[in-house]
Specification:
- This protein is an alpha+beta fold and 129 residues long.
- It folds into 2 domains: 34 residues; 87 residues, Ubiquitin-like (UB roll).
- Helices cover 41% and strands 18% of the residues.
- It has a 5-stranded mixed β-sheet.
- A hairpin with a 2-residue loop joins strand 3 and strand 4.
- The longest helix is centred in the first third of the chain and has 32 residues.
- The radius of gyration is 23 Å and the shape is globular.
- The protein starts with a helix and ends in a 6-residue tail after the last strand.
Length: 129
């Protein structure tokens, strides 16, 4: 075997290892992205009547956002959707979402990352006097 053919074989083996490793990395990343952790969410006033509980667990991928969590909520409880979302997919002004006691309107809005084990509270419009 010539030096040139050995070099070509080595390059080919290196390329196959890189492809195999890249494939595993993509598969690992895809599995990680699909792994969803239960997130406890508290609903208040009229909203808890729709979900039949004050606290529910909703699936959320690690690094998920408030939008992801609300999407999970409205997919699980479709009657929530018209109360939560505007026609163009925004959050209705009167729905207040708090993550660890801070309203998402003062964070990154619907793009606010929900940390694992965060306290999430969702309030409907509240009136009184």
């Amino acid at each position: 075997m010539t030096e040139q053919s050995r070099s070509q074989m080595a390059r080919g083996a290196t390329a196959r290892r890189a492809e195999s490793t890249a494939g595993r990395s993509r598969a690992t990343m895809a599995a990680f992205a699909e792994r969803k952790e239960p997130m406890r969410v508290k609903f208040y006033a009229t909203l808890h009547q729709i979900v039949d509980s004050r606290t529910v667990e909703l699936p959320l991928v690690p690094g998920g956002t408030a939008r992801d969590l609300l999407t999970a909520a409205t997919s699980t409880y479709p009657r929530l959707a018209p109360l939560v979302w505007t026609g163009d997919g925004g959050l209705r002004d009167y729905i207040k979402v708090f993550i660890d006691g801070r309203e998402i309107a003062y964070l990154a809005g619907l793009d606010t990352i929900v940390p694992p084990d965060a306290n999430v509270d969702i309030f409907p419009p509240v009136a009184g006097g």
